[in-house]
Write a structure and sequence with these properties.
The complex is a heterodimer.
Chain A: E1 6-9, H1 14-30, E2 34-41, H2 50-80, E3 85-92, H3 94-105, E4 109-113, H4 120-125, H5 128-135, E5 140-143
Parallel strand pairs in A: 1-2, 1-4, 2-3, 4-5
Helix pairs in contact in A: 3-5
Chain B: H1 4-25, H2 30-49, E1 52-55, E2 58-61, H3 62-77, H4 81-84, H5 86-94, H6 108-119, H7 122-135, H8 138-163, E3 166-167, E4 173-174, H9 177-187, H10 191-228, H11 240-255, H12 260-287, H13 289-305, H14 312-328, H15 334-339, H16 347-354, H17 356-376, H18 385-394, H19 400-431, H20 435-454, H21 458-470, H22 472-499
Antiparallel strand pairs in B: 1-2, 3-4
Helix pairs in contact in B: 1-21, 2-21, 3-8, 3-14, 3-22, 5-16, 6-16, 6-17, 6-19, 7-14, 7-17, 7-18, 8-9, 8-13, 8-14, 8-16, 8-17, 8-22, 9-10, 9-22, 10-19, 10-20, 10-21, 10-22, 11-19, 11-20, 12-13, 12-17, 12-19, 13-14, 17-18, 19-20
Classes of the chains: A alpha/beta, B mainly alpha.
């Protein structure tokens, strides 16, 4: 049993689901915990209209509770496997945040799914797995 | 934002030249009838609001004095807060003090950017041109001074906007002068006066929203589009209703339909336009760097000698003060509505951030326009308003007038969106919240877009413009009563910084 958890990026998609399943197997094998991170993309420098300013706090509360709800099945599934699991929902830049959390938590590795997209935008702007592979402080596993 | 009076007057003069033919063609046109109905009331209100006293042979509108005097008082009362806390304001905008836990909430930067998009506009492009064409380069100096003073007014009103905002159970926030006037004055033991000031402010704000924030914008955007598409020979000439209808539909889709994508696109393009405008200006200034010294010399000499300006020094001063006040809206109270949504426990932080607004709007962008005009040598071309700015930029980039026209339309559009919100907030303050009540205001607002673009409503525009400046009367009276509250906020905030309770997180 190691106290270094596996960090899994989760957003409720099929790709994230596969990442959780894979992480479940790894955690059972290594006897470590799992920490699920749900990042809501957010920049404090994005532009909002006056109406959006007014409703921002309300929307944020809604977004957070929706994210918690999305996390629930994954948490349940991992609990069933008797894997100690924690989770958090954060706002920010997904790549930067996951790297930072991995450092703060002393994670042994990061596991994320990939959507398998090879669209132009992913090429140009980079995707989360690419960013992590480039910038992560710990080993990264990308689940296809 | 409002390059008012003179420009409006010239536009009206231009239009009235074509008016007789139209009037003949359709006997008494609808616009003529509206004009006749509204003129007596509008003339009285506009006449009162813009009551001017002759100083050194020039008419000085008292309302401009009211704004500048208030700005000076706030500057002194808060010990030149705009200079002492400028660095702190930048640190706040950068997010140096924003707790990571608050990610996802409205940041200081976002509140500032949204408020700026409501003020940066025609005033920065056309208003400045009016100021220097009438007041000479020296008007720039006084404009900068008024802009610097205005920072203290913004600081005061936006601090109060956050302090006395309403936070509803569902998490929405609503703030602005109507709330600090009613709640703040009640705290001061004057609930009656507060209520009256708040109601007067709301009425004026609705008038200003549909007028200066809507009809005037639609009208000027249409004028500029006609100008670049061939002036009188333009395929659009005389089809103001069509232009207005298109604008109204787009505005309606955003504010009634709730289609965020259009607002999003505009609000992405508007800052981009501002950046293009400032970059083009900087390129012109840098490529003529040898002339900048001379331009500043003209500005300083002009400011204190008033050479070649009607009314001399005072003439230049009035023009500069007027444009600054019309452009950055410091003391009007509108910005306090936008700034109130920020997520902060300390109201005074938003005040510090808000003081950057007149700085960016007036001291940076307006000054840049003035420099470009002075350097280009177009000042003696006899042009004024947006045409002068257009010609000045065209002397360096021939294609610039097209970009400028696009910028004017987009600025007008984003200003309309901002003001539709300010108007709506005042409307719901008066009649209460509710879907039906909000729709009524929004439909009326869209209708006004068409009216503004299609008609030569000189009196209506005068009336609505005067309503915007009328907002400054209840607002500033309230600010005088509530300045000690702001001082208290400053004291407790800096005590927390000194004790280490509030720390930089970056």
């Amino acid at each position: 049993m190691t106290d270094q958890p596996i960090l899994v990026g989760y957003d409720g998609t099929d790709a994230a689901q596969r990442a959780v399943e894979f992480a479940g197997k790894r955690a059972t094998a290594e006897g470590c915990a799992i920490h699920l991170v749900y990042v809501l993309e957010w920049s404090p420098y994005s532009f909002l209209s006056t109406q959006e300013l007014e409703e921002r706090h309300q929307r944020r509360t809604e977004e957070l509770s929706r994210a918690e709800k999305t996390l629930k099945p994954a948490l349940d599934a991992l609990n069933k496997l008797k894997i100690p699991v924690t989770s958090e929902v954060r706002y920010g830049h997904s790549g930067e945040l996951i790297c930072k959390i991995a450092e703060d938590k002393g994670a042994c590795q990061i596991i994320v799914g990939r959507k398998g997209g090879s669209t132009l935008s992913a090429r140009l702007l980079g995707s989360l797995p690419l960013t992590l592979v480039q910038a992560s402080p710990v080993p990264v596993t990308v689940v296809p | 934002m409002f390059w008012k009076k003179t420009a409006a007057a010239s536009a009206v003069a231009m239009m009235s030249a074509t008016l007789p033919q139209i009037a003949l063609a359709q006997e008494v046109g609808l616009d003529e009838r509206i004009n006749q109905a509204i003129a007596p009331i509008s003339n009285v209100i506009a006449g009162t609001m813009f009551y001017s006293v002759p100083i050194a042979g020039t008419e000085f509108p008292l309302i401009v004095g009211w704004l500048v005097v208030a700005a000076t008082i706030f500057t002194l009362y808060f010990g030149f807060v705009q200079f002492r806390r400028f660095g702190h304001a930048i640190a706040l905008v950068k997010g140096d003090y924003s707790h990571p836990e608050d990610a996802g909430e409205v940041s200081h930067f976002q509140a500032l950017a949204t408020a700026l998009s409501g003020t940066v506009g025609l005033g920065n492009i056309a208003g400045v041109a009016v100021a220097v064409s009438i007041g000479g380069p020296g008007a720039t100096f006084w404009m900068i001074l008024a802009g610097l003073l205005g920072m203290a007014s913004k600081f005061t009103e936006c601090t109060l906007g956050v302090k006395y905002r309403n936070e509803y159970k569902d998490g929405r926030v609503s703030g602005g002068p109507m709330y600090y006037l009613s709640k703040g004055m009640a705290e001061k033991g004057k609930p009656g006066l507060g209520k009256v000031l708040a109601v007067v402010f709301s009425i004026c704000c609705i008038g200003g929203a549909v007028g200066g924030g809507n009809m005037f914008q639609a009208n000027q955007a249409f004028q500029q589009v006609v100008n670049v598409t061939g002036g009188e020979n333009s395929f659009l000439a005389g089809s103001g209703w069509l232009f207005g209808l298109i604008m109204a539909v787009i505005v309606g889709v955003v504010i009634i339909g709730g289609i965020k994508s259009i607002a999003k696109v505009t609000e992405k393009i508007v800052p981009l336009m501002a950046v293009i405008y400032v970059t083009a200006g900087m390129i012109i200034i840098l490529s003529n760097i040898t002339m900048v010294g001379d331009a500043f010399a003209q500005i300083f000499v002009g400011a204190f000698t008033g050479a070649g300006v009607a009314g001399g020094v005072i003439g230049a001063l009035i023009q500069g003060f007027k444009r600054a006040a019309f452009s950055n809206e410091a003391g009007i109270g509108s910005a306090a509505i936008a700034h109130a949504a920020v997520r902060t426990k300390e109201p005074v932080t938003e005040g510090y951030v808000a003081l950057l607004e007149p700085f960016i709007d007036t001291v940076v962008i307006c000054t840049m326009t003035a420099l470009v005009i002075t350097i280009s040598g177009e000042l003696n071309s006899g042009l004024t308003g947006v045409e002068l700015t257009s010609a000045a930029f065209a002397s360096a980039f021939t294609w610039f007038p097209l970009i400028l026209a696009l910028a004017v339309v987009l600025f007008a559009f984003s200003t309309m969106l901002s003001w539709s919100y300010y108007g709506l907030k005042s409307w719901t303050y008066l009649v209460g919240e509710g879907k039906g009540k909000e729709i009524i205001f929004k439909l009326f607002f869209c209708l006004c877009v068409i009216v503004g673009a299609s008609m030569s409503l000189g009196p209506v525009i005068d009336f609505s413009d005067s309503m915007i400046f009328a907002m400054a009367i209840p607002n500033i009276i309230g600010l005088y009563f509530l300045m000690p509250v702001v001082r208290g906020e400053i004291k407790q905030y800096w005590a927390k910084i000194e004790s280490g309770e509030i720390k930089k997180v970056k």
